[in-house]
């Protein structure tokens, strides 16, 4: 572990409870390494009296209270860019898996249905589809580049229309969903995007529409998603993220209209190594009084 070459590292799980950890180590902690889902537990904020840097090992930092950090003079970093391409790759993998029914075809062969029942049912082609991207940031742009190779039409929505972007802009998620064949959610999580994709958007996407979420589970209204899948108002969903991870509702697990993965869009050896290296490099910059490489605040 590279950090051990420079620092005393204490694992949060080294003591039986957060209270015990804070009581023993709280005043000694100068840097906290976390992720965008765990953030900084509220129960230990006051105990970390000398905390100066929060290093978020991930691109999302929605669980970190930036207002509190700013008020305390605590810097926050994340690890953008190094994971974007892998997440974009995985988004496309989910899209293709849904349209071409790859998991079902795999099971069809493994369960010997090919020999007993004959040809696998026809799937749906992806090329030529209308691809809607919710949040055209770093990852969204990379997804658009990959989707363009399939001769797709590409639309997007976001806070504003971006200059120099040739893709079609839609002012709302609802308008984009009504146009798209597949809606790919890449927007950050947090209060501003909570349930940004809800029942109206899912119904607008329609009985043939496909939802792909590689952002945060909180962005999609999960209850509405379940209802729309069960009623046939939405065609299918490919989900890498969920509202209460790692808990996934049984209705989503057992739905024939879902393809699921355990929040692994950035989970490659190379990317995780690059993320860890960027965290370490930021911490070293901070300790040595130099500019942070990827500051959030």
UniProtKB/TrEMBL annotation:
Keyword vocabulary terms for this entry: NAD, NADP, Oxidoreductase
Coiled coil: none
Family: Belongs to the D-isomer specific 2-hydroxyacid dehydrogenase family.
InterPro entries: D-isomer_2-hydroxyacid_DH (IPR050223), D-isomer_2_OHA_DH_cat_dom (IPR006139), D-isomer_DH_NAD-bd (IPR006140), NAD(P)-bd_dom_sf (IPR036291)
Domain D-isomer specific 2-hydroxyacid dehydrogenase NAD-binding: 92-265
Identification of the protein by name: D-isomer specific 2-hydroxyacid dehydrogenase
Keyword NADP part of the UniProt annotation: yes
Signal peptide range in chain numbering: none
Taxonomic source organism: Advenella kashmirensis (strain DSM 17095 / LMG 22695 / WT001)
GO cellular component annotations of the record: cytosol
Source organism, top-level taxon: Bacteria
GO molecular function list: glyoxylate reductase (NADPH) activity; hydroxypyruvate reductase [NAD(P)H] activity; NAD binding
Domain D-isomer specific 2-hydroxyacid dehydrogenase catalytic positions: 4-297
